[in-house]
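Notes from hallway chat w/ T.B., transcribed later so I don't forget. T.B. wanted the structure written out for a chain they're using in a teaching module, and asked if we could keep both sequence and structure tokens in one place. Agreed to drop them here.
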Amino acid sequence: MNAHPRNHSSLGFSLVEVVLAVGIVAVAIPAVLGVMAVFSSSSSSTMDRGEAFSAASSLQLYLSGKVRDPATSSNVPFATVYGWTYAARQAPASAQVIYAYKTNAAQAGYTISRSAPAGTVGGKVLAAEILAPETRILPSSTLVSASSNYSKAYLPLKVSIHALSSASQPRTAATLVDSYPMVISQ
């Protein structure tokens, strides 16, 4: 008889148990990291949408002529915005771009200007393209070349906002945050 009986529970883990545990951890870690990446990117997208919505409110005032452009020290007249819309209908690639940015991270509202920000800004630069809405909303027969011949008391617009790391970054489908319908009056 054996004087020292083996007690299998006190010897530690078997090789099979260790390999199984390592396999589970090897599968679980990438899955957890993948889920974290998805939440991180959706969180960033949500922040961009919130900022774009806030900037769109300021942009509405700017396009309505109620806020001065710091680059020109003047309000934007209806005829100018109308001209941008007409040009964008004729050639969408020539859409006027308006920039919304904060000069520092603590700034409450956005600085809105036709001029790209010079130097460092506090966060992302939001570039808003002023476009003509779909033709069924604003038919080509209604949108005439001269704003003085425009018969409506209002002008519908489509504003596409891109979140850029700098003003020199190109606007692409990947940088598009959202599009907002707007209406300005004469």
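Follow-up for T.B.: The chain has a mean pLDDT of 81. Might be a good example for the class.
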